Amino acid sequence: MAGKPVPRLALSHVSHRYGDIVAVDDVSLEVAAGELVCLLGPSGCGKSTTLRIAAGLEKPYAGQVFIDGTEVVGEGCFVPPEKRGVGLMFQDYALFPHLSVARNVGFGVSGVSRAERDRIVMQALRIVGMEPYADAFPHTLSGGQQQRVALARALAPQPSIILMDEPFSGLDRRLRDEVREETVGILRQAGAAVLMVTHDPEEALSIADRIALMRAGKLVQIGTSDELYFHPVDADVAEFFCQLNRIHAHVTGGVVATPWGDLPASGFAEGAGVEVLFRPEQVRLGAAARDDLPRAVVERCSPLGGERLLQLRLCEDNSSVRVRLPYEDCPATGAEVGVKVILSQMMMFPCRHESAP
User: Fold this and answer.
1) Which has the closest alpha carbon to 182: 127, 142, 139?
2) Which of the following CATH numbers is that of domain 9-239: 3.40.50.300, 3.20.20.100, 3.40.190.10, 3.40.720.10?
């Protein structure tokens, strides 16, 4: 039986610090050939430092880095970035303003004849749709065009690994979505292993094969978009992807009481404080006259394009519930409605705040 394929990129127990500040704390992560992994987290969590360590731009305090099974960082071993065969893309694109588009793209192509380098450069520009701009200079290009040139430069040496640090954050929303979709398609065709840093949960959910979520220098959870969204390991992971509804309660008789019935609390001690969380899109509305549904009043209706975010006030206990609905299903402000939440869609975690009831 064949063994597990060797990952293109592997970080093993990598740690790094700046003085007394621990930036990366015992991170282990693998990226396979043809896989796109998003390193996700808030600002300052260590994700960009982790990427720079993989690129060779930072030497870690401890740990190892492997490319195609070969150690490039370890005790007594440090391969410089230019010898790792890694393509890099940064937030500011880092294009040389005094070089033409073609010369920017060809900058990292070495060890071949001039004719072969020109062929490689034009092929890379053709892939990203920028061949007509080969003689242009970066300052004459739009943000989206500069991003495509940066991608061509990363692709030109045909690296087995591409590392990207917030590559789309400098673009406006409409252009960002368009360029991101094009870029991901090109990267998948190239078959490289891609590790991309982002702080945007929606971006990670939409493009990643797997998401590696970081918090305070540590990897908190690694998995597919569905695994992190629907099966978060803790309440902070759950809340990172959207604003949640929350119920603070205590376990009584092995269950937690909610307005929609008793929620089994297996694994929690009797009397333990818990947080019950559920997402706004998991709430459904019904007729206020239904006896089987808790009643609520619509306090506020905020437009979100074709959807609306409703703020409800439950009549039973005066608690607040957020609901996300299509525009055409939105009741008027002040309307009384029945509120339905399926117990199996609720998430339960230990209470994060000791003072909570």
Assistant:
1) 127
2) 3.40.50.300
Q: What is the pLDDT of residues 269-286, one digit of tens each?
A: 999 999 999 999 999 999
Cβ neighbours for 43, distance < 8 A, ≥ 6 positions apart: 199
7 alpha-carbon distance from chain centroid: 21
pLDDT surpassing 90 at residue 100: yes
- Grade residue 355 by pLDDT with cuts at 50, 70 and 90: very low
CATH of 242-350, one of 3.30.420.40, 2.30.36.70, 1.10.220.10, 2.40.50.140: 2.40.50.140
Q: Are strands 62-67 and 77-78 parallel, antiparallel or unpaired?
A: unpaired
Q: What is the largest CA-CA distance in the chain?
A: 80
Cα–Cα dist 323/337, whole Å: 12
Record the pTM.
Answer: 0.89
Domain boundaries, the chain: 9-239, 242-350
Q: CA–CA separation, 35 vs 8, rounded Å? A: 9
Give 111-124 pLDDT, tens digit per residue: 889 999 999 999 99
Which residues make Cβ contacts (< 8 Å) with residue 250, sequence separation at least 6? 256, 271, 272, 273, 274, 357
